Amino acid sequence: MRDDHAFDTTAVHAGERRPGPEGSVVFPIYPGTVYAPADGDGYGDIRYPRLSSTPSQVYLHDKLAELEGAHTAIATSSGMAAITTSLLSVLRAGDHLIAGDVLYGGTAGFLSHFAERFGWTYTLVDPGRPDTWEAARTPRTRAFLVESITNPLVRVGRLAEVAEFCREHGLVSIIDNTFASPVNFRPLAAGFDLCVHSATKYLGGHSDLVAGCVAGVEDLMGEVRTSLNYLGGSLDPYVGFLLARGLKTLSVRVRAQNDNALALASFLADHPRVAEVHYPGLPSHPDHGHASELMDGFGGMLSLRLHGGAEAAETLLKSVTIPASGPSLGGVESLVTRPVTTSHAALTREEREAAGVTDDLVRVSCGIESSADLIADFRQALEVV
Ligand SMILES: *Cc1c(COP(=O)(O)O)cnc(C)c1O
């Protein structure tokens, strides 16, 4: 990011070419798979979509890098491609990983299905309890993976301490920043080595594309790029075009989502039918203190429990009229879901309860609608639960 520009300006202008190709202010889609080599070009100069080196891809990478304040960023075909490619580029057979104990289901599933096959071991720790991390470290520990805001209880770990712990012990710090987005939290500035995203969520922002990205320090990004070239999870230029378009409005969208989530969480916290509200922007949230120091905003995700259990939760989902009912998150439209039936359905009851995912938990992904309309909608829905 240019130091003299605020994030809002960067979000619009990062990576843009002036003048653009043929004078176009909007960077075009280059779908081509074949490019003539220039005199003296070597293998490293080949422009080919799987090698993430075609003009539309390079344009998008410049935009992503500037938004993350990174030397380099690379787009991937999904958030999972970003996570798996990053882990495969950092970990060797025999290595050990420390990871947060509440991970996105796909990430947790990847580790439980594949770690052993790749010869990795891992230990899960509470990212909010730095006093427990040293006991998890082994001589083969190579990396520490956390999420900036967890799903669905929206916990914020001791992220500055994670980066510090990794620096002290020579570990690679990796963070999944999907829930916070770079509008609210910029991990590289906070000392992380690699930042991954599901761009399917806030970065794309319109629930109409699947993509991911990895941003980070130069030497590690070289490994990530090499791994991605072989593993094949590069991003198609058509989808990349939609992602670049979404990024231009990232800042206004996420700020509106922050505002809506805070307004809705505050309303819900005072409502007699609501038993619990989880939102890091509320002073009652256990992580509010350090989250306020780390983040510029608390994100668009919140969760709640009602007096009346799972049945009341289901009635709430059916009675709200503005939010659609469905998993996923981060789009301009508000969404409601019961994680027990969607994101956490694959877990056993024991695993869910350990993660605080009770049957009656409702998760809300706030969109950019009017906060007054959203509050009025939840108010009328809570009348009938
Ligand atoms: C959705 C999500 C992912 C996976 O992203 P895909 O784009 O679906 O592959 C990873 N991490 C988090 C936190 C997510 O919400």
Automatic annotation (TrEMBL):
Iron found in the keyword field: no
Keyword Lyase appears in the UniProt entry: yes
GO biological process: methionine biosynthetic process; transsulfuration
Cofactors (names): pyridoxal 5'-phosphate
Region (Disordered): 1-20
Reactions catalysed, as given in the entry: L-methionine + H2O = methanethiol + 2-oxobutanoate + NH4(+); L-homocysteine + H2O = 2-oxobutanoate + hydrogen sulfide + NH4(+) + H(+)
Listed Gene3D superfamilies: Aspartate Aminotransferase, domain 1, Type I PLP-dependent aspartate aminotransferase-like (Major domain)
GO molecular function, one term: homocysteine desulfhydrase activity
CDD domains linked to this entry: CGS_like
Pfam families, per database record: Cys_Met_Meta_PP
UniProt keyword list: Amino-acid biosynthesis, Lyase, Methionine biosynthesis, Pyridoxal phosphate
EC code(s) of this entry: 4.4.1.13, 4.4.1.2
Residues recorded with modification N6-(pyridoxal phosphate)lysine: 201
Source taxon at top rank: Bacteria
GO cellular component terms, semicolon-separated: cytoplasm
InterPro entries linked: Cys/Met-Metab_PyrdxlP-dep_enz (IPR000277), Cys_met_metab_PP (IPR054542), PyrdxlP-dep_Trfase (IPR015424), PyrdxlP-dep_Trfase_major (IPR015421), PyrdxlP-dep_Trfase_small (IPR015422)
Family: Belongs to the trans-sulfuration enzymes family.
The name this protein goes by in its record: Homocysteine desulfhydrase
Organism: Haloechinothrix alba
